[in-house]
Specification:
The structure holds two protein chains of two kinds.
Chain A (H helix, E strand, L loop, with lengths): L1 H17 L2 H19 L8 E6 L4 H10 E6 L2 H9 L5 E6 L2 E6 L7 H13 L7 E7 L6 H31 L3 H6 L4 H27 L6 H25 L3 H24 L12 H13 L5 H8 L1
Parallel strand pairs in A: 1-2, 1-3
Antiparallel strand pairs in A: 3-4
Chain B lengths: L1 H16 L2 H19 L10 E5 L6 H7 L8 E4 L2 H10 L4 E8 L2 E8 L5 H18 L7 E5 L9 H15 L1 H16 L1 H6 L5 H28 L5 H23 L5 H23 L6 H4 L3 H10 L7 H29 L3
Parallel strand pairs in B: 1-2, 1-3
Antiparallel strand pairs in B: 3-4
The chains are: A alpha/beta, B alpha/beta.
Chain lengths: 311, 346
C-alpha cells in the first residue's frame, strides 16, 4: 500500500522537478522569510521621513536625523515634488521664527503630530521641565513585525500546499486522467493519500525552515508540525469542495481567490482587533492556526491547549 | 479590429457563461461589505499602558486625561512596579509607565519591551518633552502645516485601506486569472478552432487582456464608488486602473508562458502575488519600507490609487505612473506574445 502511495507522490515530484516548479515553490517562501529577517531590524528606524532645502540649519538636519531620515534637496519646488511622490515624506521649510511643514495630506494619521513635536522642541529646547523621563526595558527583543511576519508566512504556505494538491486534482479531472485510476492497480484512497502527501510534507518542511530562518528561539517543532498538519488538511478539504462545485478551472481559481478573504481577514483580525472582538473570528480555522503559532513563538503553548485548537 | 471585437465578444460571453464575472462581482461586493460594515471609519489603535503611581501622586483619572488614553481598558493601574513588569511579560504589545516623586519633580520611567530602536526611544522622549512644552504658559506654536491635497484632516483610515483592495483584487485580476483562461482554451481545443480562423496570436491575446480590463474596471468602480462615493476623482481612477490592470494581465501572460499546465503556472503566479502583497505591509506601516519592497510595482500603485481619493489630487503623479505601467505592460505583452507564438498552436 505504502509503495503505491509513494509511487503517486514520486510521480508528482518528478513532474515538478522537470520544470523546476517544486524548487520555485520550495524556495519562494524561504526567500521571503530571508528578506523579512534581513530587513526587520531596520523597521522603526524611519518613523519620520522629511525633506529640507539646501542651506537649512545644520542643527535642524541633525535633529531630524536623530528621529528618522532626512533628504536635502535643491529648492522648495524639489521639496514639493518629493512630498507629492509615492511615499510619506514631510517637507520642512524654515523662515525666520516660523517653520512650515508641508504634507501631502494623506499620510498616516498622527504622523504630522510627530513632525510638529520634533520641530517645536528644536525651535525652543526646554531647560527646566516639571517632568523627567528615562527608559528601561524587560529584555524582550522579538518585534511585533518579526512575530507576526513569520507567522503569516507560515499559515499562508500551509494553505498553499493544500491548494496545489487541489489544482493538481482539478487538472487531472479536466484531462480525464482520473478515469485511468479506475483501471489501475491502486485504490481511490491510496491515490488521494498519494496526491495529498506533498500538500502535507512541503508545508511542514517550509514551516521548520521559515522558523529557523526567522531565528525564533525555543520553538516546539512537534507542536508546529501538528498545527501545520491541521491547517493543511483543512485547506485540502476547502480545495476539494471548490473543485467539486466548479466545473471549470477558471471559476475554481476565482472561488479560491474568494477563499483568501477569510484567510487574510482571520490573521489581520487576530492582530489588529481588540480581544473583545475576537469571538467574531472563532469560526475560522485560520484564526486558530495563527493564534496557535503565535503561542508557540511566545513560548506560551502547552499540549493541553494545543490539542484542543488543533482539533 | 473586427476580428478583435469578435474575439473579445467571445471571451466576454464565456466569462458570463462560466459565472466567472459574477464571482468577481460577488468578491467586490464582499470587499465593499467588509470595508463599510467591518472596518471602522477611523481605527487608530492606541497602545495599552500599564501604570504604577507613587502614593504621593494624583489619582488615575488625572493621568488618564494627561496620557490621552480615551478608552478605559487601555490604561491599567498596578499596585507595584514589579506587577507592571510582570504584566508586560504577558503582553508584548503593551508599554509600562512608572511615575515617582523625585526631589519635587515627577520622574517618569518608561518600561519598554526591548525591541524598540534607539530612534523610537528618542522620538518618545522628544514627543514627551513637546507635550510639556505645549502646556507651558505663553507657549506659541512656531509650526504651520500646508496640506497639498487641500483636506484639513487628510483621508479616513477606511479610505486609506481602500487602495489595498483595489490593487490586489481589481488591478491585479489578470495576473491570476488570465493564465487559467489560456489553459482552458488549450484543454478544450478552442485554440485549435481559433487556429483555422484568420485571427492572429495578438488578436487572441488582446481579446483576453481586454476581457480582464473590463472585469477590473467593473469590480474596481463598484468598490471605489460604494466606499468612497463622490470623494474619488473618477477620471484619474479610470486612468490608473486601466494602466495597472493592463500591467497585471501582461505580467500574468508572461509568467504563465513559461509553464505547460495551469497548475504549474498558478504556483508561480501565486508566488508573484504573495511577493506583490508585501508592498501593502510597507504601505500600511511606512516605517518598514526596505528597498526590495519599494521597487515592487504594487508599491507605487497603492500610492497612485490613494492619490485619486485626495480633494486636490496630484494629476501629474497619477499620469506619470500610469504611463510607466502602460509602457511596462506593452513590453511584457510583446515578450509574452513572442513566447506564445512558439507554444500555442495558432
Amino acid at each position: 500500500m505504502f509503495r503505491r502511495i509513494f509511487a503517486i507522490a514520486r510521480r508528482d515530484i518528478k513532474s515538478g522537478l522537470r520544470d523546476n516548479m517544486i524548487l520555485y515553490i520550495l524556495l519562494a517562501p524561504l526567500l521571503i522569510a530571508g528578506l523579512l529577517r534581513a530587513f526587520i531590524p531596520g523597521a522603526g528606524e524611519n518613523l519620520v521621513s522629511t525633506a529640507v532645502v539646501e542651506g537649512s540649519p545644520q542643527t535642524l538636519v541633525d535633529m531630524l536625523e536623530a528621529h528618522g531620515s532626512v533628504e536635502i534637496l535643491a529648492d522648495r519646488e524639489a521639496v514639493l515634488r518629493r512630498v507629492r511622490a509615492t511615499d510619506d515624506v514631510f517637507g520642512v521649510m524654515v523662515d525666520g521664527e516660523q517653520i512650515e511643514i508641508i504634507a501631502d495630506g494623506q499620510e498616516q494619521k498622527g504622523s504630522d503630530t510627530m513632525v510638529r513635536g520634533i520641530l517645536q522642541v528644536w525651535q525652543e529646547p526646554p531647560s527646566d521641565l516639571p517632568l523627567t523621563i528615562s527608559f528601561s526595558d524587560i529584555g524582550w527583543t522579538l518585534s511585533p513585525l518579526a512575530r507576526y511576519g513569520g507567522n503569516i508566512l507560515l499559515v499562508f504556505t500551509s494553505v498553499f500546499g493544500g491548494m496545489i494538491v487541489m489544482l493538481n486534482l482539478v487538472e487531472e479531472k479536466q484531462e480525464k486522467t482520473l478515469a485511468a485510476v479506475n483501471v489501475a492497480a491502486i485504490s481511490r484512497l491510496e491515490y488521494i493519500i498519494g496526491k495529498g502527501l506533498l500538500g502535507f510534507v512541503i508545508p511542514i518542511i517550509h514551516a521548520w525552515l521559515i522558523l529557523l530562518i526567522m531565528g525564533y528561539e525555543g520553538i516546539q517543532y512537534a507542536m508546529v508540525t501538528l498545527v501545520i498538519l491541521s491547517i493543511a488538511l483543512i485547506s485540502l478539504i476547502i480545495g476539494f469542495a471548490i473543485g467539486i462545485y466548479n466545473d471549470n478551472a477558471m471559476s475554481a481559481v476565482s472561488s479560491m481567490k474568494i477563499g483568501f478573504l477569510p484567510i487574510f481577514g482571520s490573521m489581520f483580525g487576530a492582530i489588529f482587533l481588540a480581544e473583545k472582538w475576537h469571538p467574531l473570528l472563532y469560526w475560522s480555522p485560520f484564526y486558530w492556526a495563527f493564534r496557535s503559532v503565535d503561542a508557540i513563538i511566545l513560548h506560551e503553548a502547552d499540549w493541553g491547549i494545543f490539542c484542543s485548537t488543533a482539533r | 479590429m473586427k476580428k478583435l471585437l469578435t474575439t473579445f465578444h467571445k471571451d466576454m460571453t464565456m466569462s458570463l457563461r462560466s459565472f466567472y464575472l459574477y464571482i468577481e462581482i460577488i468578491m467586490a461586493l464582499l470587499i465593499v461589505a467588509v470595508l463599510l460594515f467591518v472596518v471602522p471609519e477611523s481605527f487608530t489603535s492606541e497602545q495599552t499602558l500599564y501604570l504604577y503611581l507613587d502614593a504621593e501622586l494624583p489619582d488615575r483619572a488625572v493621568w488618564s486625561d494627561l496620557l490621552g488614553q480615551e478608552q478605559e481598558d487601555q490604561l491599567l493601574v498596578f499596585d507595584s512596579e514589579e506587577d507592571v513588569r510582570s504584566a508586560l511579560h504577558d503582553d508584548h504589545n503593551a508599554m509600562g509607565l512608572l511615575l515617582r516623586q523625585d526631589d519635587g519633580r515627577i520622574a517618569v520611567e518608561v518600561v519598554l519591551q526591548g525591541y524598540e530602536s534607539e530612534k523610537q526611544r528618542q522620538l518618545m522622549e522628544t514627543l514627551f518633552t513637546a507635550q510639556q512644552l505645549q502646556s507651558l504658559p505663553g507657549f506659541t506654536d512656531p509650526t504651520v502645516i500646508t496640506r497639498l491635497d487641500g483636506m484639513p484632516d487628510g483621508i479616513s483610515d477606511r479610505l486609506h485601506l481602500l487602495p489595498v483592495f483595489l490593487v490586489l483584487n481589481s488591478a491585479m485580476v489578470g495576473l491570476f486569472i488570465i493564465a487559467a483562461y489560456i489553459y482552458i482554451d488549450k484543454d478544450e481545443g478552442t485554440i485549435r478552432a481559433v487556429a483555422v480562423t484568420p485571427a492572429s496570436i495578438w488578436t487572441y491575446l488582446t481579446g483576453k487582456v481586454l476581457m480582464m480590463l473590463v472585469t477590473g474596471l467593473i469590480t474596481g468602480s463598484l468598490t471605489v464608488l460604494a466606499v468612497a462615493g463622490s470623494t474619488v476623482h473618477f477620471g484619474y481612477f479610470l486612468v490608473i486602473m486601466t494602466a495597472c490592470n493592463l500591467f497585471g494581465s501582461a505580467l500574468g501572460l508572461l509568467v504563465a508562458s513559461f509553464f505547460d499546465s495551469m497548475t504549474k503556472s498558478l504556483g508561480a503566479l501565486y508566488v508573484v502575488i504573495v511577493i506583490m502583497s508585501l508592498a501593502t505591509v510597507s504601505y500600511l506601516m511606512p516605517s518598514f519600507s526596505p528597498w526590495p519592497i519599494r521597487i515592487l510595482p504594487a508599491y507605487p500603485m497603492l500610492y497612485a490609487f490613494r492619490e485619486t481619493l485626495a480633494a486636490q489630487p496630484d494629476g501629474g503623479m497619477i499620469v506619470f505612473w500610469s504611463m510607466i505601467f502602460i509602457l511596462a505592460a506593452a513590453v511584457l505583452y510583446v515578450l509574452a506574445g513572442l513566447r506564445y507564438r512558439k507554444t500555442l498552436t495558432i
